[in-house]
Amino acid sequence: MLALLLLPCLLLSSLTAETSIPNDWIEYTPGDCNLIISSPHGGWLRPAEIEDRTHGCLAADGVTCRWEKSCSPVAPTACRAVTGADINTQQVAAQLVEHLAERYSCRPHFIRANLHRSKLDPNRPVEQAAQGDRLAQAAWKAYHETFMTAAMERVQSRYGIGLVLDIHGQSHPEQWTELGYVLSKELLNAGPQDLSGSSIRALQARTDQSAQELLSGRLSLGSLMESAGYKVVPSRSHPSPGSGNYFSGGYITQRYSSLISGQIDAIQVEIASGIRLNPTACEKFGADLAQQVDQFRRINGYDVSPRS
User: Fold this and answer.
1) Which of 19, 140, 197, 262 lies 20 to 30 Å (CA to CA) from residue 283?
2) What is the mean pLDDT of each run of 10 residues along the chain (308 residues)?
3) Phi and psi dihedrals of 155, rounded to 5?
4) How far is CA 203 from the centre of its chain?
5) What secondary structure, in 3-state letters, does 95-137 show?
6) What Gene3D superfamilies does the database record attribute to this sequence (predicted)?
């Protein structure tokens, strides 16, 4: 693990008065710029005191899922709980933070869950994330109500604008890295005309660029990554997923973005398994992503000075 993880962190002993949890379950390293890096699915800790997450059960309406661990699912696929970790994503996130700090003079705020996804899924609402487990609920609250909220408030108060990158991994056969803007595959395939329903709503309003320019134009994040040698969707070569697999952005990207309100945008980064599971490729990706994120933030005016 990079030296970043040895830096002093804001830990949990004094921040979770309702339920005490170990300091290393959820960690936050404050930054000195207006980027926030979230790593919810790269954890490895499997404490026995938290029961494993399970499939949920359909409620009486046949649509809503109940997430009590005691229920007996009749059709597990209807309320499926994903419990596999996004392997090596926390390492990529740590590399991204360190490269941005050392090479580009911007140390992002860094929030990470060290709990394995079988114990907690911070990229879900608390009912599904913790399934009623008291300790898992406390860890979820630390991730969101303590640390993500603190980082968002610091960025908002000091800079007025900012960007959240939520780092994930997937194993889709297309082996492309997917950038999620809370726009469905169908919307991307149709070619969205505006981004008022996206996680970069504020960016479009501030820069007056077209949806196409921001999502797949020459200076979009996807196209910048493509110029570094990566297969990315959306980008100039792959402006939409077509019939391919695509994750559009989950709970964190929705909750901590300008889609809801404010001037902080968010992008979900879903790294291909061919990159994550190859140590050399994984390390190179972290450095390349930092370079392109730095370009993207400068191109789009995120590189503002802190307010006095």
Assistant:
1) 140
2) 41 54 97 98 98 89 85 71 96 98 98 98 97 96 98 98 98 98 97 95 96 98 98 98 98 97 97 97 97 98 92
3) -65, -45
4) 18
5) HHHHHHHHHHCCCCEEEEECECCCCCCCCCCHHHHHCCCHHHH
6) Zn-dependent exopeptidases
Most distant CA atoms of the chain, gap in Å = 58
Which pLDDT does position 5 carry in this prediction?
40
Angle, to 10 degrees, between the axis of helix 279-299 and the axis of helix 89-104? 50
Residue 204 lies in a domain: yes
Q: How far is CA 205 from CA 166, 230, 254, in A?
A: 22, 28, 18
- The total number of structural domains that make up the chain: 1
Read off the CATH number of the domain in which 34 is found: 3.40.630
Q: Within a domain: residue 260?
A: yes
The phi and psi torsions of 179 (rounded to 5 degrees) equal -100, 120
Task: Determine the pLDDT at residue 179.
Answer: 98
Amino acid occupying residue 37? I
pLDDT at 75: 61
Using the Cα atoms of residue 205, residue 164, residue 238 and residue 291 in order, give the sign of their dihedral: positive
Residue with tokens 């505006």: 194
Cα–Cα distances in angstroms (integers) from residue 3 to residues 8, 38, 99, 162, 221, in the given order: 11, 18, 11, 25, 27
Identify whether 107 is part of a domain: yes
56 is a domain residue: no
pLDDT in the model for residue 9: 45
Residue ranges making up the domain that contains 140: 26-45+84-300
